């Protein structure tokens, strides 16, 4: 075991997505469904999370699924209505690419490319994202050392794209009562040892709806720069990960509690009116 | 993987240690050195943490050490001065027993017996503690499923002693940058699935002094009932675990931040004047 | 990660149990039920495993169980008939102690004390076993580093009892398809870095009857000094761990395959006639 | 924990690489350097391993490295001399592709595409390999459940390419004394639950040269269909993974011991003269 003492933190560089600074004095909330399933589902979710104060939209167009038989996302069938939802709600989208060819396909649709945990060491994908001009949200691999996660980010930044946001989303451990194990040690550690913004995905990290808000609050208190969270109007009908999706009402209640904690530690939520799309 | 949704939490039963209710509306802070090393070191630490608002003292009389060559604690040589420090500071002590024979030896010295993570499945020890009238703080084993931890508590409660407090102190995972991995999922889960108070030991959970306060804040935000934290007047001179001990000044700063967060979520720190030894 | 290259192995010291040298030129097989359940069950198992070439008996008198409601072993009610079975079959017993007080209780019954994985860091128990004159079989803790396992053995040897046998029994990992993960890396590593005999418990390591013989063969091939394996005449009726118990017929078939592999690598099974009780 | 009992194994389908059947009555050895570094290094290694009985060559043209600053493989600069070495030695090559674009580039160079552990869930790559007519060696992800590994194989077979070989190469666990933890439980389990051939990479699984042969022998005894092992004429000069590379002399000694074990269990090594390139 290698243990280090750290006394000072580097200053965090700021990454701007759709008008919101991530890594600055305000806390950012990215919310939306796991999968984008239909125009109605996506519009309802977007309007709902915006009304409760979310800053950016999330939503999967292509889904990586353990089984090839599970729902793999709508793909290009979603492009038109996704663009429309973003325009109507005046929100920017963060969405995952799982292959180099997808970068170009959704370039105009998203303001931030997400790299999922299964792809954290898809170095060819990272190199290609290093050549782009839009930010990249890099999820930690399921069993990646913090150090491997930081080094994976360098595959992007070495290519010239400095706009990388680290995202802790739970690691795989022996525990089975929860989907993964949220590693807030890693958030505190990465904040002290890199200058990249660090956000948390409490939804994948615990996998149990009722516990997501508590862990979002913990993420805020530990010093994360934001969260990315799954919300679905009717989780029981979700085509993927319904167990961990908040309802719109859960989300609204969570935002109120987050607001209290963040205000207390002088790290307030962005005001939605700051938005300059 | 077994995933459960939980909508309601059981009401937490209250365990009183030295006049402080654990599991009720207030948050409890237990602080002190890893090992009790000398009368001067223990008195200085006790006075220091009390001045910053700690409610209860911690301190090891016997230490479990991986190597038989490492410092094993002062043992009975500490009894007299420990009693004196508790009396002078009007604070109660939480201390570890590693063997059945130690229960009687320190019965009059402590107000709560601690069971360390290596002993979580020392069922003979748990059974014996189930016959005592003083509370037991049960640390989670290094690689114990949440369910095993809860079932270990039943070895105590089945014996008639209901005064058990669960303590999450980090689990062993693949990550090596931090000493252990703090599992706040487990805290949120245990709060929803048991009626026992749950506290967090951020010191062992991360093992790096600079990160301990951030994780203590996360523990407060996630809904823990308290923390137990290591403090040493001069960590560089500590005979055990100096890397993770807060200085008295670190501790004081942490208490101020904790106070802000806990006030914001209506879970204030106990007032020290509540103390009724 | 700390990686070491090792070129030479220390010579293994020999530990004798009931006339069989463990750690010498021959391979040792310890077999029997998880729990000793009745005179008939234990006698039938003992006769059966002996007929197929087992050298020593295993069998739990006290069982450590995660749940306090599960079968905890017969305890002292088994003493008389256990002694009788050992005498009738002319076999020596390896059995677990979970508490210091049990050492004296079964001193005359066993030729080797077993320390279970939950007790690997019960240092008071190890210290007490260090004062005894009978060998100790020390199972690796569920999540013990190889180095912690070796250092735990020193708690015994430092007390004067050099007769320690290390036993790898599977570690806890993320994998859930098998009960634990058999770590044969650790066996190869320990053989090169200590002079203690090292044996393998394939039953707990995999937890699935059909796979136990394959893993026993792997243990023989990797260089272990023996195995300890669970056998039950009617596994479906076992009071503990029936899923992983071999039938007498499975055991017999496994012994034949082991014999072939061990003969090929010049590490033959002890002949049963070597036995000098 | 989900535990299953299995009594029968499916018959293993046979995958032919360069004239050698994998999954049939004979055991296959794939050997060569981690990285192909130069014509001389690759030729010397190929000749050396062939002389000791290796059946197929391994060697990395593109290397996935945690740090973007480490040696990334020769890439296209190696194509000509690699073809020449294969021709001169009359051996077929197994080599890794890390990106869809590489499949076409090395299609004529290799007889089997390797998918590394970091790419096990690069589903786009797997889908593309499912359209090819050459076999795929699919390494298990660092922290993939056995079930995820099997499901990843279906991304290939669903595309029409049934020629998939599973390769266990060590999983990431808490243990740090060895590079990874070889999971032979998984080999035994996969042999019983799929009809795909299963081989073992002991080099990455343990990461320590001196222990590789012992673990190769364990793989043979547990029932694997072959091994893939790293060999370097001068490991100290290797550009990647030198700590785990066998010398040619180590390899030769290992083959002799493997031969004994495999003969004993009626699973002999392929004769090299069987080769029909």
UniProtKB/TrEMBL annotation, chains A, B, C, D:
<dbReference type="InterPro" id="IPR006268">
    <property type="entry name" value="DAHP_syn_2"/>
</dbReference>
<dbReference type="Pfam" id="PF00793">
    <property type="entry name" value="DAHP_synth_1"/>
</dbReference>
<protein>
    <submittedName>
        <fullName>3-deoxy-7-phosphoheptulonate synthase</fullName>
        <ecNumber>2.5.1.54</ecNumber>
    </submittedName>
</protein>
<dbReference type="InterPro" id="IPR052899">
    <property type="entry name" value="Class-I_DAHP_synthase"/>
</dbReference>
<dbReference type="InterPro" id="IPR006218">
    <property type="entry name" value="DAHP1/KDSA"/>
</dbReference>
<dbReference type="GO" id="GO:0003849">
    <property type="term" value="F:3-deoxy-7-phosphoheptulonate synthase activity"/>
</dbReference>
<keyword id="KW-0808">Transferase</keyword>
<feature type="domain" description="DAHP synthetase I/KDSA">
    <location>
        <begin position="24"/>
        <end position="261"/>
    </location>
</feature>
<dbReference type="InterPro" id="IPR013785">
    <property type="entry name" value="Aldolase_TIM"/>
</dbReference>
């Amino acid at each position: 075991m290698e243990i280090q003492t750290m006394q000072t933190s580097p200053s965090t560089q700021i990454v701007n997505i759709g008008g919101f600074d991530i890594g600055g004095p305000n806390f950012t909330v990215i919310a939306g469904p796991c999968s984008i399933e239909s125009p109605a589902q996506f519009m309802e979710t977007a309007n709902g999370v915006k009304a409760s104060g979310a800053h950016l939209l999330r939503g999967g167009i292509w889904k990586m699924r353990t089984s090839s038989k599970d729902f793999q996302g709508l793909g290009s069938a979603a492009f038109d209505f996704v663009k429309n939802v973003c325009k109507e709600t005046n929100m920017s989208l963060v969405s995952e690419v799982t292959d180099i060819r997808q970068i170009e396909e959704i370039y105009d649709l998203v303001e931030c490319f997400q790299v999922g945990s299964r792809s954290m060491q898809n170095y060819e994908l990272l190199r290609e994202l290093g050549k782009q001009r839009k930010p990249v949200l890099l999820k930690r691999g399921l069993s990646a050392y913090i150090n491997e996660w930081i080094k994976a980010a360098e595959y992007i930044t070495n290519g010239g794209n400095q706009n990388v946001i680290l995202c802790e989303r739970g690691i795989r451990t022996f525990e089975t009562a929860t989907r993964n194990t949220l590693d807030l040690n890693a958030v505190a550690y990465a904040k002290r040892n890199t200058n990249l913004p660090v956000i948390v995905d409490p939804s994948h990290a615990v996998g149990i709806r009722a516990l997501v808000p508590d862990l979002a609050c913990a993420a805020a208190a530990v010093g994360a720069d934001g969260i990315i969270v799954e919300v679905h109007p009717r989780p029981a009908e979700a085509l993927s990960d319904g167990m961990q999706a908040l309802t719109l009402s859960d989300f609204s209640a969570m935002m109120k509690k987050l607001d209290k904690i963040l205000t207390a530690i002088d790290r307030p939520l962005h005001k939605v009116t700051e938005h300059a799309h």
